């Protein structure tokens, strides 16, 4: 009987493993979602999709969506669900997402999570990595963070500074600080996180797809924990 059960389990896990992998990075602002998404994307060979980056790109291009979103972003509030959902679903419909993708900053509300569930249910292997960081560390992390304008590589002024001030080690681009990474806006973003996004932890715990990650550790340690929490399996099916 045990043999039959384990044979069945291995068939189930093999069928599961053939599905594309969708990884959701959850956690408060500053927990390291953006920092770990890049290396995870390289390791897993699937794209990193950040809704915050998509909005910032829209703003750079001066699109209507970019201008609408900026009003909310600058105050530390969430952009309305319908604007986020259209943009995100449009992005994950693209060719490079057919084997899976890593979501950073989405979903942030229960409505977004349920819309994603409807789209993905039964079609993918979903893993939600919940990056934990105590409140007192959040503000120091966010207010010190900077990133390259050209390649997006993140740095921290104190904990992970570039070799030459304000210049990216990787591509030589200029480093900048986000306008919403100020103490006042970070406090509002934390409030919004607690009231609207933290309830998603239960939502995914109920689906048995949640993995807790301690994000206080050094970068390499956290990345290894994230990788160990993920199935290292090839994706074969088109989920767009
Ligand atoms: P992030 O780069 O993930 O910190 O996002 C920056 C800002 O973009 C957030 O504070 C929100 O204003 C907005 N934003 C990003 N993703 C979402 C989302 N899924 N839902 C609503 N607003 C979002």
Measured between the Cα atoms of the first and last residue, the distance is 39 Å
What fraction of the residues are assigned to beta strands by DSSP? 15-25%
Low-confidence stretches: 1-15, 233-237
Mean residue pLDDT: 90
**SSE class:** alpha/beta
Order of helices and strands: HEHEHHHEHEHEEEHHEH
- In total, the number of strands is 8
User: What is the helix content?
Assistant: 40-55%
Bound heterogens, unique: adenosine monophosphate
Which CATH architecture of the domain at 2-134 and 198-228 would you pick? 3-Layer(aba) Sandwich
Enumerate how many helices there are, as a single number.
10
Task: Write down the Rg.
Answer: 18 Å
What is the third-level CATH name, the topology of the domain at 2-134 and 198-228?
Rossmann fold
Overview of this protein structure:
The protein has 240 residues and is of the alpha/beta class. The chain has a domain at 2-134 and 198-228: P-loop containing nucleotide triphosphate hydrolases (Rossmann fold). It is 47% helix and 15% strand. It has helices spanning 2-17, 33-44, 51-60, 64-73, 81-92, 110-120, 135-143, 183-197, 199-206, 219-228, and strands spanning 21-26, 48-50, 100-104, 125-132, 145-148, 154-156, 175-176, 210-214. Strands 2-3-1-4-8 form a five-stranded parallel β-sheet, sandwiched between helices. A three-stranded antiparallel β-sheet has the order 6-5-7. Strand 5 and strand 6 (154-156) form a beta hairpin. The longest helix has 16 residues, at 2-17. It is globular and about 45 Å long. Adenosine monophosphate binds next to helix 3 and helix 4.
């Amino acid at each position: 009987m045990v043999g039959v059960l384990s044979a069945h389990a291995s068939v189930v896990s093999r069928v599961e493993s053939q599905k594309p992998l969708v990884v959701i990075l959850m956690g408060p602002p500053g927990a390291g979602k953006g920092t770990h998404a890049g290396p995870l994307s390289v390791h897993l060979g699937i794209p990193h999709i950040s809704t915050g980056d998509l909005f910032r790109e829209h703003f750079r291009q001066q699109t209507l969506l970019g201008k609408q979103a900026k009003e909310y972003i600058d105050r530390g509030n969430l952009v309305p669900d319908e604007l986020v959902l259209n943009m995100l679903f449009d992005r994950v419909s693209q060719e490079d997402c057919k084997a899976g993708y890593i979501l950073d900053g989405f979903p942030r509300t229960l409505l977004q999570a349920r819309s994603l569930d409807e789209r993905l249910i039964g079609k993918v292997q979903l893993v939600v990595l919940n990056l934990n960081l105590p409140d007192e560390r959040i503000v120091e992390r966010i207010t010190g963070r900077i990133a390259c304008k050209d390649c997006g590589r993140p740095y921290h002024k104190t904990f992970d500074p570039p070799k030459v001030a304000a210049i990216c080690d990787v591509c030589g681009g200029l480093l900048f600080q986000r306008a919403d990474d100020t103490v006042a806006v970070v406090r509002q973003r934390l409030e919004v996180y607690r009231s609207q996004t933290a309830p998603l932890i239960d939502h995914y715990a109920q689906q048995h797809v949640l993995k807790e990650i301690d994000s206080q550790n050094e970068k390499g340690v956290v990345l290894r924990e994230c990788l160990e929490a993920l199935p290292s399996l090839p994706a074969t099916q088109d989920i767009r």
